[in-house]
Write a structure and sequence with these properties.
Layout (H helix, E strand, L loop, with lengths): L5 H8 L3 H9 L6 H14 L5 H8 L4 E6 L5 H16 L3 E6 L4 H13 L4 E5 L18 E4 L10 E5 L1 H14 L5 E5 L5 H16 L6 H4 E3 L7 H11 L5 E4 L2 H13 L9 E5 L13 E5 L1 H16 L7 E5 L1 E4 L7
Parallel strand pairs: 1-2, 1-3, 3-4, 4-5, 5-11, 6-7, 6-8, 8-9, 9-10
Antiparallel strand pairs: 10-12
Pfam families: LacI, Peripla_BP_3
Protein name: LacI family transcriptional regulator
Organism: Enterococcus ureasiticus
Amino acid sequence: MKNYSIKDIAEIAGVSVATVSRVINDNGRFSEETRKKVLKVIEETGYKMNYSAKNLRMNKSFTIGILVPDISNYFFSDVVQQLEEILFAKGYSTIICNTSRSSEKELAYLRILEGKGVDGLIVISGAEAFQFDSSSAEKKIPYICIDREPKKKEDTVFISSNHYQGAFESAEELIREGCQHPVIAMHNQKSTSAKERLKGFKDALKKNSISFNPKQHLLSIDIESEDFEHDLLNFLKKNPETDGIFSINDLIALELMLRLKKNHIAVPQKIKLIGFDDTPSGKYTTPTLSSVKQNTDLIANHAVETLLELINNKGELGRQIVVPVSLVLRESSTP
């Protein structure tokens, strides 16, 4: 099989070598028609770029590091998959690092990624504010924070869902459906997203003349605790008037649904329930789970577009991008 050069690709496609280079690097001006034509020729000829030479020439690795706290979490894994697909289409490979919510592991991965010469980082969620100082002053690695507040906002771009909106609309929906004693169920109250959801829930209650009382309206519960069911029943014993629960995520919501049914507490007849994340399993429960859906596609596109701008020294730092959410209503919150 013939080894095609970039010059051969240009001649077959009827464009200049510079245009082929711009298409490959997804950089510069060219029409969509030209892009498709060049990519078709590349596919038909089996053209392979000499990435080692290209990387040395451009001082780039065309590799992006992604830090995620828990790859088994549906929202995180969905975002990571979207990021990987978009980056791959733009000629970038990814190194995905699961930190297991460990700051020590995260720090170790940061040094590993820096040693591998990644062009940029995407950091997803976490309870602690994120800070990364490149060990080399000559090459600072740009990074994007998704749902994780940066310590130095002027050094990055912060992208998040509108957690406040999701919680506010969920609480309003419960109240609209007749709930007079709605509750928010959560465990971690340290992360930016958790704080925003709690604030949105409180403000919705305030708008509807319900005074928030932590003992009555906050169910602090740990899904991994052996006392999960005991803590739930103990809360309901102290607050028998509870008629609606907004769960900070679907994992807690689905576990709540299971334990409520086990104890003959009907959902939604006795207690209405809304989750957050719109995980696929929520569509197949009985009753089906109402939940807040995050726009992972838009989040990932914003993250990649913004990071590549920073890599090419074109982006504006110190910004925040807030992505709207939508409330998906199903059987768990309707009569």
